[in-house]
Specification:
Elements: H1 6-18, H2 24-35, E1 39-42, H3 48-57, E2 62-66, H4 73-86, E3 89-93, H5 107-122, E4 127-129, E5 146-149, E6 154-157, H6 165-174
Parallel strand pairs: 1-2, 1-4, 2-3, 4-6
Antiparallel strand pairs: 5-6
The structure holds iron/sulfur cluster.
């Protein structure tokens, strides 16, 4: 069970500063060296580049897929395909019945279909990895690479923090990796189907998320 001691917080601050210009592979190597297999990756299956990097260094890493019951069929099929083809160690979380009364687009829906299931899935882990990038949105522009995640009570590692969409595209192309099938249809950031449309603003990948709702984040990455 991780505890945020002053020594650990100092260690994370030093690591965060050290990784300011580091490649994701270096950050991942430190993560698995430091925390062993006590690490989980919260994967949307849009983040194939990072999933590929992780499977190369630690193939049995627990991959947590938050099944909200609202994903596109294409997302579900693609997740199953990669799990099978790559032999991934996937844990699928499901919402409880308490989520039923809360419609998509409400904060309570994300809390019960994403935040609470993730909290249960990472309980007792030392660290979790995300594919967040500072370039994703203004709300993420100053996020740290390594830090203590007060909300879930473990270390949070963002190896792609300094990457751009072009960096991801280059990695996918140069490694001949499959892409989420909806990308080829014009979608650019894919969440639950009821609130995901193609980008509404040119150049703003996430402008098609929570269309029509007063939301920018699902709550997983807010303090
Ligand atoms: S995106 Fe919509 S359906 Fe998915 S968890 Fe959030 S509010 Fe619910």
């Amino acid at each position: 069970m991780p505890i945020s001691t002053p020594e650990l917080l100092d260690e994370l601050s030093v690591a965060d500063a050290r990784f300011a210009h580091a490649a994701p592979a270096e950050i991942l190597a430190w993560t698995f060296d430091r925390f062993g297999d006590d690490v989980a990756f919260a994967c949307s299956f849009e983040d194939v580049a990072l999933l590929d990097m992780i499977r190369r260094v630690a193939p049995r890493t627990e991959v947590i897929f938050l099944d909200t019951r609202g994903h596109f069929p294409e997302t579900m099929a693609f997740a199953q395909r990669l799990e099978d083809e790559w032999g991934l160690n996937v844990t699928r979380t499901l919402p409880g019945a308490d989520a039923d009364p809360w419609p998509c687009g409400t904060q309570r829906c994300c809390e019960l279909r994403k935040v609470a299931p993730l909290a249960r899935a990472v309980a007792g882990k030392a660290a979790w990895i995300t594919s967040l990038k500072r370039s994703d949105a203004p709300t993420r522009s100053s996020m740290r690479i390594v830090h203590w995640d007060e909300k879930f009570g473990l270390v949070k590692v963002n190896p792609l923090a300094t990457w751009s969409d072009d960096d991801v595209a280059y990695y996918l192309g140069s490694h001949e990796l499959p892409e989420h099938p909806l990308w080829s249809q014009g979608y650019a950031s894919i969440g639950c189907a009821p609130v995901t449309v193609k980008p509404l603003v040119d150049g703003d990948r996430r402008s098609g998320r929570w269309a029509g709702a007063d939301k920018e984040e699902c709550g997983l990455h807010e303090a």
